[in-house]
Here is the input.
Amino acid sequence: MEDVPQIGYSEKVMDHFMNPRNVGSVENPDGVGRVGNPVCGDLMEVSIKVEDGILTDVKFKTFGCGSAIATASMVTELAKGKTLDEADKITRQDVADELEGLPPRKMHCSNLAADALHKAIEDYRERHGEGKEKAEEAAAE
Amino acid sequence: MIYLDHSSAMPVDERVAAFASPYLMQHYGNPSSLHTRGLVAKRVLEEARGKVAKLINAESPETILFTSCATESNNLAIRGTALRNNKAGMRVVSSAVEHISVINPMKELQKQGYAYDVVPVSPEGYVDLDMLAEMVTKDTVVTSVNYANDEIGTIERIRDVSRIVHEEGRYLHVNATAAAGRIPVDVQADGIDLLTLSSNDMYGPRGAAALYVRKGVKLQTLLPGGGQERGIRSGTENLFAIAGMGEAAMIAGREMGAEGRRLHEIAGAYLKDILMIEDAHLTGPATGRLPGHLSFRFGRIEGESILLNLDTAFGIQVTTGSACSSRTLEPSHVLLAIGLKHEEAHGSMIMMMGRSNTTEEVPYVVDAVRKTVERLRMITAM
Ligand code: FES
Here is the structure.
């Protein structure tokens, strides 16, 4: 194959598109976030496993374009091992930066990935109220 | 590398390149000059006109105007006739599956006060003839319907369209960009008043296109200047591209029969195997398609991903009508017009075969498409 750049996608985007990390759904997830994209009609789902306030497993599924797959893959990588608060602070810009940029009209795909992660965290927090978390912590001590 | 995207771009035929290249550096005269070099250029220009006229059975070479691209021809045909004939009426009509370079000039006219009606199509992409008859009225100055659709492969029933348009309306413009050079087009038998054809859609160089204007049809110029092309389209002629277009038209006319049969055969081989893939559907008509044209949709996956995966992992180049690959992130208006839902229009894959393709490629490509679909389905959230 000739060595040509892919439609404005960086090598890193192409790598995550071709070899996406963390594809699928976490078994018995502690939180799930599912968002649809009103612009292009795509779907993104992120599921998380939380232990001691840390995201031990993060997986995704998406019905979307090349950058949707790549950004989702990147978001799961970024979120894994982080605390809930740290993961909640991951922005779409972080995702895009880690991927060495996205074409401007594809920036919303990174939104999709970050939003799905945030939703999954929100879902976790709803399921495990702050109090419950504290109780668990106390029980562990 | 297997190139299956001849609807987006084609290589220039070697014979065309050989024929036209002297007009870049050797015979560079201006057809408007009166000296020998100019006269040589003038002769080449007129020969090209004759060859293009012959391809579409135009009544005479004078009915052919050269322009720079199909978009220009479509603009000239639509806006040129509407503006010049506005006393006859201020209505324009097109089908719902026209190229954007037809739709946008229509919308431009709408801004200037013309009424613009859009005729719906059947699920296979055929213009609804009853609706056409209803929408074309005595005030309709120009109606535009494409000869063949380069996205879903439908070949319109142009003679029926023409009959209906001429019962009430004034002029029928046909965008034959995808058809001319691939299937027989006969402007006289088909009853066409204006017809667009482009060089680079028949293995000619870019930078040349033509507009057939039936004798007696009056157009307003959109590009006033030195008066070239019967005063309708000024500008120094792109002799190299025009000479190439003429030659390309001649070759296409001579070879389209055999080439069409060959492409039909390849497409037939693809069709049955690709439809075996789970949740794969043909878009456009099952028979009577443009030779070598196939368009599919695959449920639960997305077209840009299909395109990228086929290209990167297998070196196969196709195109898609998916929203994610378009500038506006809107799914193709053609796919919506044939009744697909937003999420169905997502998984579109268009294959347009050309002279370089063979049946030997079929098993490799089918296998690649199957693997691509399976891989993306593993990721899908649907
Ligand atoms: S998800 Fe549709 S453009 Fe990226």
Observations:
- The interface with chain B takes residues 1-2, 6-7, 9, 14, 17-18, 20, 23-24, 34, 39-45, 60-66, 68-69, 105, 108 of chain A (CB under 8 Å).
- The longest strand of chain A covers residues 54-63.
- Residues 52 and 137 of chain A are 8 Å apart (CA to CA).
